[in-house]
Specification:
With about 200 residues, this protein is mainly α. It has eight helices and no strands.
């Protein structure tokens, strides 16, 4: 039962869904008026580009034996998927969430791009950071920034995310996918870009 719960945590909070969670969290919390058709268009685009497209590309890479599992266990098999993800995030920044439209989400995804590029560079040097922790901690920092920016109470979200971060770390350790150092590297790789870019929109 314990194994099932920990594996479920890794699956449910997979890095692919974190950008979408950030977008939906922003739309739920922002007091700004954003037309519903625009919201739906943005959410639909993010689902296609950050979830469906990467899954399809994963199966392509698996077919040609470039990756083994969706968890990208070795640094070598991380390089191509991370490079592709950098291109996808850059495309989102240029076409979906431009700087002159929704600035908060623009810098959120710019932070995601920086975190992904940092993870890619580390993979070249055979340093393995937890992608789960990168994604979850990036969303965590963005949620805090939204709370500060709009002066709203998100204590429940902060408490829940701290529990989720702990659960993700525990699940990755239990699965022997990472050690403590790799989890910490992932945590700060996700947090730091979001913290830096807060200065541009807070």
């Amino acid at each position: 039962m314990k194994d099932f719960i920990l594996k479920s945590i890794s699956f449910v909070f997979h890095p692919l869904i974190m950008p979408l969670l950030g977008v939906m969290f922003y739309f739920h919390k922002t007091p700004r008026y954003i037309p519903e058709p625009l919201r739906n268009a943005k959410i639909f685009s993010i689902v296609i580009l950050t979830i469906i497209l990467p899954i399809l590309l994963f199966f392509l890479l698996k077919t040609i034996n470039k990756v083994d599992t969706i968890y990208l266990k070795s640094t070598k098999e991380r390089i191509i998927p991370l490079f592709i993800n950098c291109i996808i995030i850059a495309l989102i920044l240029m076409r979906v969430l431009t700087s002159n439209e929704i600035i908060e989400l623009y810098y959120f995804f710019l932070g995601i791009l920086c975190s992904t590029m940092a993870c890619l560079i580390m993979a070249f040097f055979k340093v393995k950071a937890s992608i789960h922790m990168i994604a979850a901690s990036g969303f965590f920092m963005f949620a805090i920034a939204i709370g500060i920016h709009y002066q709203i109470n998100i204590n429940g979200t902060i408490a829940l995310m701290m529990i989720i971060l702990g659960a993700i770390a525990t699940s990755r350790l239990h699965a022997k996918a990472h050690d403590n150092q790799e989890l910490l590297i992932g945590l700060f790789t996700g947090l730091f870009p979001q913290l830096v870019f807060m200065n541009y929109w807070l």
